[in-house]
Amino acid sequence: MNFSLDIHDLSPNSARLCLAVEQFIHGQLGFDRASRLLLAVSGGADSSALALILRILAPRLGLELSAMTVNHGLQPDAACTAAAAAAFCARLGIPCTTRTADVAGMAAREHLGLEEAGRHLRYAILAEERRAAEADFIVLGHHCADLTEDILMRLTRGSGWPAMAGMRARDDSRHLLRPLLCCKPHALRSILREYRFVWREDISNTDMRFKRNRMRHAVIPLLYKENPSLDSTMADLWRLAQQDRDYWDKTLAEITARHSWKKDPQGLCLPKEMLQGLHPAVRLRLYHKAVSSLIDGTNGTCHGQARAGTLTALDTALQAGRGETRFQLPGGIEASIHKGSVYFCLPGKLVRHNTMS
Amino acid sequence: MNFSLDIHDLSPNSARLCLAVEQFIHGQLGFDRASRLLLAVSGGADSSALALILRILAPRLGLELSAMTVNHGLQPDAACTAAAAAAFCARLGIPCTTRTADVAGMAAREHLGLEEAGRHLRYAILAEERRAAEADFIVLGHHCADLTEDILMRLTRGSGWPAMAGMRARDDSRHLLRPLLCCKPHALRSILREYRFVWREDISNTDMRFKRNRMRHAVIPLLYKENPSLDSTMADLWRLAQQDRDYWDKTLAEITARHSWKKDPQGLCLPKEMLQGLHPAVRLRLYHKAVSSLIDGTNGTCHGQARAGTLTALDTALQAGRGETRFQLPGGIEASIHKGSVYFCLPGKLVRHNTMS
């Protein structure tokens, strides 16, 4: 290594960036010293900056780093890009594994878009590697412009609140960390330039067949014209959502401590006594929690996020005493009402109202 | 009148539209039978359909209708448009008053954009007329596409949740009703066409100097391409927000019943005992409620809506025990912290920490 990774040797701007990430880690992520982190790297600017910044912070935070790059095989130079990511990690002294993923095959098999198939497969491989490497967390390079895109996409898709305001900085159920959510993308490129590190521009980032790119290149520039501080505004909304998420987690924990729900391999039941007397806003969050709990329990074979409108319709049916309506939720989960209790049933399972209630 | 206003004589589509509005009135607005309503009409399609639909529903709901049109004087044919609105009401047998507003003058005097000045002045004149006519509510013709625009504009501007998800269907502090929020604009035009009623297209609706029009004509069509049911998706989000608003109203009412805040002509104080032990998500809503209460008390001389980010920064300062920071809120309101209590002070007033706490 012919360069210094000591924070004291950085330019003021780069030092400030690293310290902002350190502060975000302390304030929002709060993981333990001496954590083992698996970095997801692609050879692009964001994940390269992630590796560099965490490598600089590693001695200060007592981190043990390893990395992994997934060759999606979608572009002709995919193997080359994966090799560049591995070489970048080698220069930083971070051990890096390369894995190949058949995204096109999965997309065809499971009738998914390339974007969605790529995301599911990448997370599945990262999760496997995390367990193999005995790492505490997978670390992703999402930054504040990704947050803005994510909020717009969730808003358009019909996520409710607080899910709408974007991805988590720390997701314990999936062992994910996103320490760069406080960073602007140009700052990440600046620190790479300061080290004269080169990165590869992912050509798929300009492919307008992908919804994320249409948001990034067509919609968001128009919103920036209305509000040049759009990223900060979205970051404020994100912080509010994290706070609300924490509030609802605590409120629901109190309720499920009083009246526990009933779970079996077929599904989950929210008993009548639990739902009675609750404000509709609380019931809605209980439904969300129940669906997430079911989805989390399938270890990735079932995925998706319930639209706010579907769960509201379920609650309207409950309030109106309409017993026999069934509601289709993402991942093939089915919701139904029986004698004032609400049932969520996994795909292909038969709900047994009698044994569960 | 050479046409029938009996709902039984309408085409099935128009009857369905009227019944949907009636159902929305029962479910979301819940005002009393025999209410006196002042309709804001402009000669445009939305408010003309509002007048027609409410005229059809009036005997069923026992409504007493009057109308008012405001001549903004901004376009050369403004007087003509106001006259057309009045003539339309006359055909329906609804008494209509015309008032003239000097929007350009107010914009220059108060350093506001034409759009903002027009909105403030229109609401002020309508409020005056409502009191003079002893009407219970002012009724506005906003429909579900306006809701979508409004959500996008609030999101971009930095409104928090639930304020972000749009205008109220019923606003008791301003005596406003919006019974068409459940309607699609093309359905409103269809019922007018069925009656062979003509309406005037407001040429300012295509003026791209106005932010609302840039949202309507440039941003929203791109989002429709991603989600052709965007209006329904936004209506779902809106319903969720109304539910959450109700939840927070009730939760805050319980808190302010236990520990009341202190209000005097200078401003308002949230005492330390009230704030202690509350979740940050609750404290944030208390700040919002306090600011709204101050703004409402000024009878329109002070307006605006606090950005989520500013109130979060105030709360962070409170938690960190930073006493001497001051925060500028909309309408010139200033927030400050003193010995664990939070003060909101009206513009030009001096906060007196000692007498209030």
Structure, described:
The structure is a homodimer of 357-residue chains. Chain A has 357 residues and is an alpha/beta fold. Chain A folds into two domains: 7-238, Rossmann fold (3-Layer(aba) Sandwich); 259-356, Uridine Diphospho-n-acetylenolpyruvylglucosamine Reductase, domain 3 (2-Layer Sandwich), CATH 3.30.465. In chain A, 51% of the residues lie in helices and 13% in strands. Chain A contains 13 helices and eleven strands. The first copy, chain A, has helices at 12-29, 45-61, 78-92, 103-110, 114-132, 144-157, 185-194, 211-226, 230-258, 272-275, 280-296, 308-319, 353-356, and strands spanning 36-40, 64-71, 96-100, 137-139, 170-171, 176-177, 262-264, 267-270, 326-328, 334-338, 341-345. In chain A, the strands form two sheets. In chain A, strands 3-2-1-4-6-5 form a six-stranded mixed beta sheet, with helices on both faces. In chain A, helix 6 (144-157) packs across helix 8. Chain A binds chain B through residues 151, 155-158, 160-162, 164-165, 211, 214-215, 218-219, 222-223, 225-227, 230, 232-233, 236-237, 239-241, 243-244, 246-247, 250, 279-282, 284, 307-309, 312, and chain B through 151, 155-158, 160-162, 164-165, 211, 214-215, 218-219, 222-223, 225-227, 230, 232-233, 236-237, 239-241, 243-244, 246-247, 250, 279-282, 284, 307-309, 312. Chains A, B: Its EC number is 6.3.4.19.
